Structure prediction request, 93 residues.
Amino acid sequence: MIKYTKHFLSKLEDLLERQAYDIRYEKGNFQSGYCVVEAKKMIVINKFFETESRINNLIDIISQIEIDETRLDAKDKDLIKTIIFSKEDTPIN
Prediction:
């Protein structure tokens, strides 16, 4: 189960940074609330989002990008499993 805390947000940010992604919180006109620039490995998330929305956006991004497992330690792998499990457990409306 995912807890929507700033500490969990920090874990997600660290995981993405270890994947060489630059995460920025800026204002913008994003239809989905975020933008991923693959060529530069940059993620831009709406800076006006609360912690829960930021976490949900990062989870969506992590589930869409290719993860280099050589850059993951055991804790990161557990975190990815938690994310995948939570995405599968979420009911579709």
